[in-house]
């Protein structure tokens, strides 16, 4: 059992990254097998894979996107770790103020501040509890870190 929240978060991040690497490996292996079965040469397959890697194609692009999402979630969790450990203080859901905010996030943005454990039961930003899922750009901030109304945009549902 990890000694503290941060150690647990480090283990979780490493586990997520290892899982993403394993999924990418299996996807690439399947890609190679299917192309060989279709009659492509190893040189042709290597060329396709290199182009995908350097130009951000779907195979390697998905891997990069998933790793980036894991790192973003981990950095937000590390920032929240002191609040989790203390289990005190109110957090406000801060939504990104543009047209791409999903209805779930717009609703949470208009909710009153609450303790971390309540947000965790509703669903934290980027953890899949909202329509935008892991693409969520919202954050939770301690209420006392903001001056009233500064940087907070309320959305009409």
Features:
5 helices, three-stranded antiparallel beta sheet, 3 strands, 2 domains, disordered C terminus, mainly alpha, about 160 residues
Briefly summarize what is shown.
The chain has helices at 5-37, 42-55, 58-86, 103-109, 116-122; strands at residues 90-94, 114-115, 139-142. The protein has 157 residues and is mainly α. 14% of the residues are buried.
Q: How would you portray this structure in words?
A:
There is one protein chain. Helices cover 57% and strands 7% of the residues. It folds into two domains: 1-86; 89-157, no CATH class. Residues 152-157 have low confidence and may be disordered. The protein is mainly α and 157 residues long. It has a three-stranded antiparallel sheet. The longest helix is centred in the N-terminal third of the chain and has 33 residues, at 5-37.
Q: How do the helices and strands line up, and which of them pair or pack?
A:
Elements: H1 5-37, H2 42-55, H3 58-86, E1 90-94, H4 103-109, E2 114-115, H5 116-122, E3 139-142
Antiparallel strand pairs: 1-2, 1-3
Helix pairs in contact: 1-3
> What does the radius of gyration come to?
20 Å
Main sheet characteristics: 3 strands, antiparallel
With helices defined by DSSP (H or I, 4 residues minimum), what is the helix count?
5
Order of helices and strands: HHHEHEHE
Strand line-up across the major sheet: 2-1-3
Strand residue percentage: 5-15%
Shape: elongated
Distance between the termini: 43 Å
Q: Average the pLDDT over all residues and give the rounded result.
A: 80
Secondary-structure class:
mainly alpha
What's the number of domains? 2
Uncertain stretches of 5 or more adjacent residues: 152-157
How many beta-strand runs?
3
**Residue share in helix:** 55-70%
């Amino acid at each position: 059992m990890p000694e503290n929240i941060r150690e647990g978060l480090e283990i979780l991040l490493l586990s997520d990254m290892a899982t993403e690497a394993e999924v990418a490996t299996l996807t690439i292996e399947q890609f190679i097998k299917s192309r060989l079965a279709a009659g492509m040469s190893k040189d042709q397959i290597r060329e396709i894979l290199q182009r995908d890697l350097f130009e951000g194609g779907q195979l390697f692009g998905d891997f990069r996107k998933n790793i980036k999402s894991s790192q973003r979630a981990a950095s937000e969790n590390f920032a929240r770790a002191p609040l989790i450990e203390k289990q005190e203080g109110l957090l406000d859901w801060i939504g990104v103020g543009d047209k791409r905010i999903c209805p779930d996030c717009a609703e949470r943005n208009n909710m009153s501040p609450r303790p971390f454990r309540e947000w965790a039961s509703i669903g934290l930003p980027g953890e899949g509890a909202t329509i935008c899922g892991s693409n969520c750009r919202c954050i939770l901030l301690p209420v006392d870190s903001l001056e009233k109304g500064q940087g907070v945009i309320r959305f009409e549902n």
